[in-house]
Amino acid sequence: MTQLYSVSLDKLKLTYKKFGSGKQVVICFHGHGRSPEDFRFLENENRTIISIVLFHHGESYFPEHRIEKNPLNKFEFIALFQLILKQENILNFDIVAFSQGGRFAILVFEDFYQRINFINLISPDGLDSNSFYNRMSRKKWARQLFTRWEKNPNRFVYLTKVGKKMHLVRPKVASFVENFALDKSNFKRASLTWRGFRELQPNEIKLKEIVSLFQGNFQIIMGSNDQVIRPKQAYAFASRIGKTESVKEIPCGHNFFSAKNQKFLEEVIIL
Fold it and tell me: Among 103, 154, 231, 235, which one is least packed by beta carbons within 10 Å?
């Protein structure tokens, strides 16, 4: 059984799993509703995988009462991340991150790019701070609606279906949302992370400067058929930071970790 490790800062706790004991360190960030176990396939005799558990997943802890008035900020997260580097005696490392985990990985890249060799962002969240999804998370009335829907997700499912019929919500997105809303605990976690991670936005001006200096490999891996986070969003983001050539596509949707799609991932991830 894989052991769980943790670091703490004030009342926050960030946990992680370790796979392997090789010299090359790969730090991974899983997606929403996913598991740190997703990255076990990267383990080999030459690597140590540090797979971080996002807040509101597993044993990582962020107090719910802070979400509305004092949500998680970059400085707190980076301070916790630094504690992991210190605890594990890590100097240089690589990054692999999926979906919501990409939001955290980009923040790490901004502060630690000189210590990173390779960064692989798989269908990363947070590519556009001005998207409807991100803008709504910064609207108090929208967050209040989600807080109410936590008690009865069926209301949200109904609105999603209406949006689908009116062609305001893409069919694949509607299906993705409905699957999460079928379970109250899943929906609540989606609400907590959407509301609680709203201040974790990339600094694109800083990123553009960093990628021009970065000596390692910067790669964004997208699913050609992904309707949750679409390739065109990645291309637009990459263009804004001057890294258009960094986007690679593989033939899949948003489920990158099925047995079939994982093989495609293994072929394109650079470590």
Answer: 154
171-206 pLDDT, tens digit each: 766 776 777 677 888 889 989 999 999 999 999 999
- 236 within domain boundaries: yes
Residues 105, 99: Cα–Cα separation, whole Å: 10
| Per-residue burial over 6-29, b = 16 or more CB atoms within 10 Å of its CB, e = otherwise | bbeeeebbbbbbbbbeeebbbbbb
Q: Encode pLDDT of 93-147 as tens digits.
A: 999 999 999 999 999 999 999 999 999 999 999 888 877 778 878 888 889 988 8
Residues paired with 24 in a beta bridge: 47
Shared domain check, 245 and 260: yes
Number of domains present in the structure of the chain: 2
